[in-house]
Structures are given as structure tokens and as C-alpha cells.
Amino acid sequence: MARMWRMGNIPVKDEGVINVLVESPIDPNEHLVELNEIVKSTLYHDPFCQGRFIRNKLTDDFYALTCNGCGLRLKLPKKVVTIKDLKRHFAKKN
Ligand SMILES: [Zn+2]
Fold first, then answer.
1. pTM of this prediction?
2. How many separate domains does the chain show?
């Protein structure tokens, strides 16, 4: 049976972190997790609210991850697909 593995967090400037959880039957390799698609991962907002990020389409080029706890909305280009892409995106902004 698959269980949830906590795979670290991604800092978001002034807005805490995105906690990344991935469902897998075995202890997942960090490299594989980075290639995991955002849509197949569970993302929680810490440390403020522990809400879960929901993905919504915004335009043809952008989507949003919206926290269902506090309403924080992160606008992301459509090309940000994997956890690795997400880390890179926020590493540039921090
Ligand atoms: Zn939140």
C-alpha cells in the first residue's frame, strides 16, 4: 500500500514554505521525487496554516497554486511542471 513521504520543503519568499509530500509504496529516491509532477504531488503550506495547495488554470500560459487554508495564490508559468521546476522557480525569486 502506498504511503505519503515527506520530501522536504521549498521556501517561498515571505510566505513560509511549500511542504512536498509524495505517495509511493517504497521510500522514494530524492532524484525521482524531483521529477515527479506537481499534479501528482501533495503540497502543503507551512508554517502558517497547513492548508493544501490546489491547482487552478489561470490563462493558457499560467496556472495558480492556491492554498485552501489562507488563500495564498502563487502564479506559475505553465512550463513549471515538476517538483524540480518548482524549486528552481522559487530559488530564483528568493
Ligand atoms: Zn496557507
1. 0.84
2. 1
